[in-house]
Amino acid sequence: MNFRIFLAIVSNRLFLILLTLLIAVGVAGALTMMTPKKYQAATFLLFNFKEDNPFDTTILPAQLSSSYLQTQQDIIRSQNVALKVVDQLELANNPGWRQAYKQSGARATPIRDWVATQLTSNLLVEPLPNSSHVVSVGYEAAAPVDAARIAN
Fold first, then answer.
1. Among residues 48, 108, 89, which one has the least CA distance to residue 72?
2. Mutual orientation of helices 3-12 and 14-34 as an angle, nearest 10°?
3. Global pTM?
4. CB 140: neighbour CB atoms within 10 A?
5. Between residues 97 and 26, which one has the greater pLDDT?
6. How far apart are CA 3 and CA 9, in angstroms?
7. Per-residue pLDDT for 23 more than 80?
8. CA distance linking residue 128 with residue 130, whole number of Å
């Protein structure tokens, strides 16, 4: 097969090629417009395992440092920390959160606990790859300002 035969095939099928391209771009554009926008904000925490005392020469063993880091991640993901975020940012009084609470139909749980549960479900806490002391705390929300406030 030489180049002339290839060009002849492409020119004979040009309409079909362009139609397929147009359909694919149209479907991709429609799906992009239909999906709800999500914004993600992240902040990074550095955990220092050493004491600030220059005379103390004890170093935390590697096994304990990984469990210490995992413990800190579990604390960040906990319901108690989420409740403190709800209180500090006054999210239970926010009209958007109140409307979402009413639409959910979760009348048995108080709004404060419901908001905290929603926060923990959209919270991303993970250690950075190739780093033993840095943890990324991210939050995904429908508005960029909300994502940044809650992540910080």
1. 48
2. 60
3. 0.68
4. 17
5. 26
6. 10
7. yes
8. 6
